[in-house]
Amino acid sequence: MATAEEIYARMQTSIQEYDDAAAVAAAKEAVAAGLDPVEAVEKGFAGAIRELGEAFDRMEIFLPQLVMAADAMKAGMAVLEEAMATSGGTLEKKGLVVLGTVEGDIHDIGKTVVGAMLQANGYDVHDLGVDVPSTRFIQTAQDLNAHIIALSALLSTTMLYQRDVVELLRNKGLADKYFVIIGGAPVTQQWADEIGADAYALHAVQAVSVLNERQAEWKR
Amino acid sequence: MNLKEVVKRAETGPLMEANDFLMKRVATSVIKLQKEYSIKWDGKTLVNLDDDLADRCWAAGKELLLQTGVYSMNSRRVIEFSSEEVEQALRFAPSRIPVGQGKEATTVYHRQVEDPRPPFVFGGPFNADVHESMFVKLNEAFAQERLIDCLLFPGYLKELDGLMIRPGSGLSSRAAVLYGQWAREAVRRAGRPGMAICGHAVMALNEIACTSEEWGLRQSDPRAMVLISELQVDDVTMSRTVYYQDYGCPIYMAFTPLVGGYGGGPDGTAIIAAASFIAAIMMGGEIVHIGPQHIKYKQQTNNHSLFLGSLANQAVARNSHIIATTSHTTAGRPGSDQYPYEFSALALAVVPSGSNLTGPRPAEPLGFNDVSPLMARLFAEVGQAAARLTCEQAAPIVEALYQKYKDRLTFEEAPQGQPFEALYDLDTLTPTQEHQALYEEVKAELVRLGVPLT
Questions:
Q1: What is the mean pLDDT of residues B124-151?
Q2: Residue B283: which residues within 8 A CB-CB, separation 6 or more?
Q3: Rounded to two decimals, what is the model's pTM?
């Protein structure tokens, strides 16, 4: 039987090679060997995906590789989560993010980059896609018991739907329940302040650092 | 192949999820084609000097389009093309398009690599957010610049009567009507009533409400459509294309390949750019605009985008007669010297590579009226000068200019500049002394660097 170190190495390689089948196999091996799932995540998957996130920031790898690595990690994590559930525990994740591009806006890539970077940094991301009605963000956040709602808008004419989500949350008395972060080409800190969003990020890397830094606020 | 067939295929092509299209068709094919055609950036070159690389990029781009097709985001179906259809479309693509009316009637044309003819200049607010109170004055100030051939995107009316405009709303239809009326009024005031206006009023189908032969945008005015990255199209764009084509307007089709995205680096993204130029023609485009985006930077003057712009334009200019133009967005803003240094670098990279000119404008996020007509004049002058240079002559100047701003490429680092109303005397519509002095100073520096400005 493989040692723990060998299994962790296989888990790392599966992420580095963007191989979801290998990630699932390595995670199953970890479970079969009776390794602690929390430790397996940290020593197997987490370090490797963080390194890829940094490589993406340095433009040594690109969006397809980052997405494939995030998918591989998701597949492997599902195995470890199932094992934890069977033993009556849960695998704690950093935070659950409901992400999407607002209504009337069909731009996908910026939002996808943010989603992949968040996943690479340990967040659980539920991507609603593009042209998402304001009410759907809120309904999904409620259904999934999310911590964070992340709203992307690429057009100065669709930014106003970011305002609508924040306003709807206020009207429903849910403003304190979810941490709202906004971004997109025309979006500014000034706009975030004006509409009462909790945070603004200029780009994907900043979205990760803002959420990491303000964990105490969104874990309220 | 005509638009009738394209819209039909948007309803009948293979059904798939967007993510599968982007990952399995686009990203996978680019990686394969990049190896097969040896498309590799050396990490240093800003202006491509390798003709064979440009030809390989074109061949890879054509093959990419045949492998991917164009994804219809609403129907989730792929509009696929055969090799014969692509070849035929390229053969019949226009190399000249008349725009404008009366004394302002002019022609946009295909340029070749190192073509000595001056580039056609699309200049104007370029979809910067323009406040309703400044809309006519700002566009008049652009239209009075005689080197601008076509008034470009007179500006987004983000608000009307103090309210933000929701796409598709009654308010946005009103905004589209006013956009047409005010843009026409602006060119009339500038003494150029027939000047072509390249229009893109609001981001919804009711954009067509700006159309009127009497008071708005006319049949002789190009209408802009934007394909979504990468190789995707939405129903609104298709619908507008169908309407404007039947109405008789020249179709200005833009695409925005993303460096660091599904094409990888600038080399792989250049293959997507070549494919997108052809896709734009297949989708009814007649004037094709490349506006490279970047995963890290918001402007188009970084080293990756300079190389991508020069390579993709050369690929198109050497192998087709597509009318190409390149978008210029910057990190520096009007009122700073970085703004003209950035747009000059890109213009010097793409004009000898066969492109016409579109711009300039700072990258988003923007405040209201963050553009300068005087700087658009300098942009056109640099474009004319660039047409007198070979790629080899332009390359060291581009490098020298790039060195001036390369450490201030992000929004936070770049100079913030000033809006139009701070740079111009609004009564006389002339630049302030300070803004004029900046123009003279930058122009002298460009001459010193070897730009043959007259």
A1: 97
A2: B3, B6, B70, B79, B225, B227, B233, B238, B241, B253
A3: 0.94
Q: How confident is residue B202, by pLDDT bands cut at 50, 70 and 90?
A: confident
Residue written as tokens 């192949």? Answer: B1
- The nearest CA of chain A is from the CA of B372 a distance in Å of 19
- pLDDT tens digits, A7-39: 999 999 999 999 999 999 999 999 999 998 888
Amino acid at B27: A
Stretches in chain A below the pLDDT threshold 50? none
Provide, as residue numbers in chain A, all residues whose Cβ is less than 8 Å from the Cβ of B412. Answer: 202
- Looking at the fold, whether B180 and B32 belong to one and the same domain comes out as no
**Cα B168 to Cα B224: distance, rounded to the nearest angstrom:** 17
Angstroms from B30 CA to nearest CA on chain A: 11
Which of B51, B75, B92 is at the close of a domain? B92
Identify whether B14 is preceded by a cis peptide bond (ω within 30 of 0).
no
Residue of A nearest to B269 (CA): A62
Domains and CATH numbers, chain A: 4-86 (1.10.1240.10), 96-218 (3.40.50.280)
pLDDT for res A219? 82
* Confidence (pLDDT) at B220: 98
The bridge status of strand B287-290 relative to strand B323-330 is: parallel
ipTM: 0.86
Tell me the chain B residues in contact with residue A185 when contact means C-beta distances shorter than 8 Å.
298, 363-365
B295: left (phi over 0), alpha (psi -120 to 50) or beta: alpha
| DSSP-assigned letters across all residues of A180-214 | EEEE-TT--HHHHHHHT-SEE-SSHHHHHHHHHHT
C-alpha count within 13 angstroms, C-beta hemisphere, residue B139? 36
Is residue B196 within 8 A of residue B220, CB to CB? The reply is: yes
Please report which confidence band the pLDDT of residue B381 belongs to, taking 50, 70 and 90 as the band edges: very high
For residue B254, give the CATH number of its domain. Answer: 3.20.20.460
Q: Return the number of other C-beta atoms located less than 10 Å from residue A36's C-beta.
A: 13
